[in-house]
Amino acid sequence: MRMILLGPPGAGKGTQAARIVENFGIPQLSTGDMLRAAVAAATPVGLKAKDVMERGELVSDDIVVAIVSDRIDEADCANGFILDGFPRTVAQAGALDEMLKEKGIGLDVVVELTVDDGILIARIENRIKETGGARADDNAETLKKRLDVYHAQTAPLIDYYRNTGLLKSVDGMQTIEEVAASVDGVLKAGT
Ligand code: AMP
């Protein structure tokens, strides 16, 4: 199964992705995690991405499209994958379509987690408290920026994937277990 998990920062994409990894035996491809690893290792990509990420802005499409394409070619993606945090712009979604076409594969489903902004802010403030702001971009100012970027650049993807017929929306404001059950429901229906 090849799927995208879509939703604003703090929607619970990471938590749900971890469960899907277990249940379906497919890897989670988180561009945020890949970029943070590149920053930590001070690779050329990491050096380019560091300041942009700390400001809560988006890294250039070229960089993320290239790292996702390379990652999909790895052996563990042969049976599918979960894209988490990618695509984040309509341009990236177009690039993904092209990339998958060239690889001779396609997407099965796009799962959107819907959560109101007020709840997201409370959740991320909690994550900052619990982790002591372990992520360089987990702070109040960057959070507001990341939410603005989501609404301006990523939310248009919801219509993009609705138009392809691949979109399934799940209420991300339920408990973690309820969200998980709803996600399982749409995945069973879609596979
Ligand atoms: P995330 O862990 O998904 O919240 O991503 C953290 C940060 O990494 C974002 O705020 C962006 O700066 C960068 N990033 C992650 N994925 C992408 C992407 N697909 N396109 C551009 N920037 C990204």
Major beta sheet summary:
5 strands, parallel
**Order of strands, widest sheet:** 2-3-1-4-5
The run of helices and strands is EHEHHHEHEHHHEH
CATH superfamily: P-loop containing nucleotide triphosphate hydrolases
Q: Helical residue percent?
A: 55-70%
CATH architecture: 3-Layer(aba) Sandwich
Can you summarize this structure?
The protein is an alpha/beta fold and 191 residues long. The relative contact order is 0.20.
Task: Characterise this structure.
By secondary structure, the chain is of the alpha/beta class. The chain has one domain: Rossmann fold (3-Layer(aba) Sandwich), CATH 3.40.50.300. Helix content is 60%, strand content 12%. The N and C termini lie close together (7 Å). Bound molecules: adenosine monophosphate.
